[in-house]
Write a structure and sequence with these properties.
25 strands, 11-stranded antiparallel beta sheet, 14% helix
């Protein structure tokens, strides 16, 4: 089997040092003095890349309301709609004779955005028709959780030019009929009835992007609030209902008509051979990158008794798939998975991003897998374990950041770099 082998003569003394550190037996010193030592570099190990899906993502009670919509040629459409309850705990009841003025819903930017926010966005506020309830078994809500709402009658709507980096706010005017009814309910004489029936009458809201206008995503803090302005004794006052109760981000992905259309279950893979030699990690769509090393058996045969000093997985993002408007995910989780993509263990390994700022041709994610590769070589070669790279739990629930990388036969070549301590023992 052909391999490109390049010997790093300048690393001999480092190799000797490593050998002495790893073999502290009384014979170690004699062995080092009597053997020829080199560090050999191998970088032509082919990898199999594929895109897999994540079964479910917990999105309840995160620290961000994520809202937006985008049509992506590779991933399909992604729709994010935050659902939330409002709290009446801090309500101060108006005095007799108070008059309703107007109502609004206020959203506060948290600085997150994705895709081009120079284009207008339209957001609509709809009332939920049922109360939010956590899953009975897991006590959480997922990205696919669904609750009915009045789709035909938004109680507030706003088209605006986003300014997410200014960390200001967006105010959606609310329907006066709805606002007046809520004010009248607060103003009732039987205050116990207000508290007892509030959640039933006002189970919550969903913030919906207009998909005909919106082509980006925004993040808002959970300090968002419904505010009713009223007048009392000539003074304008506020009734505030914070949206910091039970909440979740519903994030839906429709892959129909894309190369990933058939990807529906965790156990399935879509090979990079079917997706233009690319693999896709997208937090909003819930996809991850799987890396298989089919030549582990060959590595075992070539290396035999030699020792791997370093193994690094190198993934190269495809040029022009990232920018200031579409940055990479900032956090990754790395797992060892079996052939059905079931997680076997978490790999807590060093990761780094090397950005080619000048040309963008050789930006690299470098993931150190030394112990994993050494373990796999020593195990049964018939096992089909692989590496799975996906966004962190927090980013899966609150972002749509993506990473698109090439496979081993792409211009943006994925590779496994091995540094091997190559030694020949002289028994004379």
């Amino acid at each position: 089997m052909m391999r490109a082998w390049f010997t790093y003569f300048g690393a001999i003394f480092l190799a000797i040092s490593l050998w002495q550190c790893n073999f502290p037996s009384p014979l170690g010193e004699d062995i080092v003095r009597s053997e020829i030592l080199d560090v050999v570099f191998i970088d032509t190990i082919n990898l199999r890349l594929s895109t897999v899906t994540i079964d479910s993502v917990v999105t309840s009670n995160t620290e961000r309301h994520l809202v937006g919509y985008r049509e992506d040629e590779n991933i399909g459409s992604i729709l994010a709609q935050p659902h939330f309850q409002i709290s009446n705990d801090s309500v101060t009841f108006p005095d007799e004779g108070a008059e309703y003025l107007f109502a609004e819903f206020e959203l506060f930017y948290d600085g997150y955005s994705y895709y081009d926010t120079t284009q207008d966005i339209t957001l609509m506020l709809h009332p939920l028709l049922e109360e939010l309830e956590l899953d009975e078994d897991d006590n959480v809500l997922y990205d696919f959780s669904e609750f009915s709402y009045d789709r035909n009658n938004p109680i507030g709507q706003l088209t605006f030019a986003p300014r997410p980096r200014r960390l200001g706010s967006v105010t959606i005017p609310m329907d006066d009929e709805y606002g007046q009814a809520l004010f009248d309910f607060v103003d009732i004489e039987e205050q116990d009835l207000f508290f007892d029936e509030f959640d039933e009458r006002y189970p919550g809201f969903v913030l919906v992007p207009d998909t005909l206008v919106t082509q980006s995503f925004l993040g808002f803090t959970i300090a968002s609030r419904l505010v009713i302005h009223y007048q009392e004794s000539g003074e304008e006052l506020e009734l505030v209902f914070p949206a910091n109760q039970l909440r979740f981000n519903q994030i839906l992905n429709d892959r129909v008509g894309t190369p990933l259309e058939e990807l529906s279950e965790r156990s399935e893979d879509v090979s990079s051979t079917e997706t233009a030699r690319q693999a896709f990690l997208n937090n909003g769509a819930g996809t991850a990158i799987k890396v298989e090393i089919p030549s582990l058996r060959d590595i075992r045969e070539v290396i035999t008794q030699n020792f791997i000093t370093e193994a690094t997985l190198v993934l190269r993002p495809v040029k022009n798939t990232y920018s200031d408007l579409t940055p990479f995910p900032t956090e990754f989780n790395i797992f060892e998975v079996d052939r059905l993509n079931r997680i076997e263990r978490v790999l807590s390994v060093p990761q780094s991003l090397v950005v080619d700022d000048e040309f963008g041709d050789d930006t690299q994610y470098r993931i150190t897998l030394t112990d994993f590769i050494q373990d796999k070589i020593e195990e049964d070669a018939r096992r089909e374990d692989a590496i799975l790279l996906r966004g962190s739990e927090t980013e899966l629930a609150t972002t749509v950041n993506q990473l698109i990388v090439g496979d081993s036969f792409s211009e943006f070549e994925a590779s496994l770099e091995l540094f091997v301590l190559d030694y020949i023992i002289d028994n004379n």
